[in-house]
Design goal:
- Strands 1, 2, 5, 8 and 9 form a five-stranded parallel β-sheet that branches. A two-stranded antiparallel ribbon has the order 3-4. Strands 6-7 form a two-stranded parallel ribbon.
- The chain contains twelve helices and nine strands.
- It has one domain: Glycoside hydrolase/deacetylase (TIM Barrel), CATH 3.20.20.
- It is globular and about 50 Å long.
- The chain is α/β, with parallel strands linked by helices.
- The chain binds zinc ion.
- Zinc ion binds next to strand 1.
Amino acid sequence: MKYSLFLLFFLITSCLFAQQKMVAITIDDLPFVRMNLYSSNEVIQKTDQLLTALSNQNAPVTGFVNLSKVYSSGEFDLTRFNLLRQWLDKGFDLGNHTFSHPNYNYVSYTDYISDIEKNEPMLNTLLAEYHKSLTYFRHPYLHRGNNKAKADSLIAYLHHKNYIEAPVTIDNAEWIFAAAYDSVLKTRDTKIISMVGDTYIAYMESKLKYYEQQSARLFGRNINQVLLIHANSLNADYIGGLLQMFTRNGYSFVSLETALKDKCYQTEDHFYKNGGISWLDRWAITQGKGRDFFAGEPVCPEFIMKLARVDSE
Ligand SMILES: [Zn+2]
């Protein structure tokens, strides 16, 4: 009897551990996307909404900063800069996303690294106040270099500066949903606003399932995933639903540091084309996977694309 109880306990616990899925949440383009659409108070309040929901779920987050965004009409804007303190006050971490978000496909290595370094002095000072330091680097547009020489020089530079590259596995079109959301918020049409939000969560769930499948195909298991989203109005309002969706799918939220302990992140990446893609896609292409390996990837719905376009016009 004792033995069978022990066996039952063993089976239950091993089953639970087998189901443990982990995701690290990373949020780009801090302090906030399209700040000009909102008053300072609105942006402060939206940031608080976003961070409070994350904090309530004990979700560790690394936020990636572009300090060019704290300048308004060329002038340093302290109110915008102080948005970053909201992240640190809640215990979240900040990383370097370059000063002005250049596209590495179109700028030289020298210009690119000077943009990385332009982001450092103010961030270093701010982080030091919170007994933290700059550790992670996230490539704008997820571009690591569109030829081997550029990619290798950047890797060597980041390594030399003790930066850890922040990969992304669950890449997605959240930024298009966010542009659509900003455009419908202005209409105050609650029906369409919640339609965009609800479609966003359903889309993100389909993306999550797609990348779980790709992970299983490449590694025979679900790797520690890294999610990329942005600091925007959409997530200020829908982060709760997004976190719930991950929990419903068996995920616990972990820091980037914990996620990156997964050995999958040592996989070779020899993708040198222009695309900004998931690391899972990079690894698959490096391993010579053909077109059908990528079949079934969820796409952004047409009506969301249209709403997003209206906003950018
Ligand atoms: Zn970005």
